[in-house]
Amino acid sequence: MDGQKLTAIDARRVAREVTARIFEENMFGASDPAPRGTLRGIDVLPTSRVTQKLSRALQTILTSRGALPDLLRPQTFFEKLTMAKFFAPVPMPSPADKLAVGQYVPAELHDTISVIPPVWSGRTQITKDLLDQLSLPKGVYYAKSNSGSGTNDMFEIPPTDQNLERLARFSENWLTQKHGERAGEWWYDLIRPQNMIEPDLAVNPGESLSDWKFHTGGGNVLALQLDLDRGAAHRQLMFERDFTFIPEKMFFQTGEPVEKPARYDEIVEIVEAIAKPFEFARVDLYLVGDKIYLGEITLAPIGGQRLPISEKLDHLMGARWKSDFFD
Fold it and tell me: What is the C-alpha separation between 274 and 297, in angstroms, rounded?
């Protein structure tokens, strides 16, 4: 069929055909029970919901690239992420829980990498009364939800009236919001929602920390995404596993490459040890002085709904992603 004549109706039809064939032929082990200690999207979501999300992914590719891919034989990063999101086993409890992510750090690495210790967590709003009770030292802090992405609000102690109004409003919403529902991120529904407060790790208070985000597939680093200066001139640099700079755009504007960190090779080994149980995981780190902190484990960057801007990068990361699940 001519790619220019394909429509959303074709994407929905193909999604139904793909879903039916996967279960009929037991592709990706879909008709087998989930491995012990894991769950898959197909174990949690109704089949109609999975089909709907596959259709949406196909429409995203169609709109951007003008053709529908073969999701039964996924080739690119986005295609493989789409299939892993619903059919690959994910270790439980949910690794997306920011308060419990430390359990996925292997025991032999406990002296090498740390999780960010919250100064408070609980199932209440963050209010002036709560902050008064905590008696936190002056400085910068971050309020977050343990069970959702994009929940991050910086405030200072002592807080301003504007800080307090925003914290109360955001934190109330975080406890009731269905995180990831629109994107089909089923693992968020398995987390008991809590609010949390983390200390600022930056050397200069309030300064944006560099985010070292390692995309892994089959337990191996596919690419490093380094986010710099989020609060000002946000740049997103991409690197090969060996830190060779990739002058392509992932989701945002790129920039000039930076120097390789002194402990980079060790960091890659740490990331791949953490990623070993997962078909896909983006392992997010912060490097502060000589310390390494695990920020979170992300199972679907931007909900698995956005194509990399660079088609070349999409194919490059897809080619790097090799595993028994896809082979």
Answer: 9
Give the C-alpha separation, 53 to 307, whole Å.
Answer: 14
Tens digits of residue pLDDT in 162-205:
999 999 999 999 999 988 888 999 999 999 999 999 999 987 77
pLDDT for 4 equals: 47
| Structure token digits, residue 185 | 């991120």
On whether the CB atoms of residues 65 and 301 are closer than 8 A, the answer is no
- CA-to-CA distance for 319 and 213, rounded, in angstroms? 19
CA nearest neighbour of 53 among 98, 89, 87? 87
What integer pLDDT is reported at residue 206 of this predicted model? 65
- Contacts of 139 by beta carbon, 8 Å cutoff, 6+ apart: 156, 157, 199, 200, 205
For residue 93, whether the previous peptide bond is cis, meaning omega lies within 30 degrees of 0, is yes
Instruction: Say what the pLDDT of residue 3 is.
Output: 44
- The conformation of residue 306, written as its DSSP 8-state character, comes to -
**CA atoms of 299 and 279, how far apart (whole Å):** 9
User: Looking at residue 2, what is its pLDDT?
Assistant: 44
Residues 197, 126 contacting (CB under 8 angstroms): yes
Q: Which residues does the chain have with pLDDT short of 70?
A: 1-5, 206
3-state helix, strand, coil in the chain (%, to 5): 35, 20, 45
pTM, full prediction: 0.95
Non-local CB neighbours of 217 within 8 Å, separated by 6+ positions? 77, 80, 84, 279, 280, 317, 320, 321, 322, 323
pLDDT at 327: 83
H-state helical runs in the chain: 8-24, 41-44, 47-65, 77-87, 128-134, 161-176, 264-275, 311-320
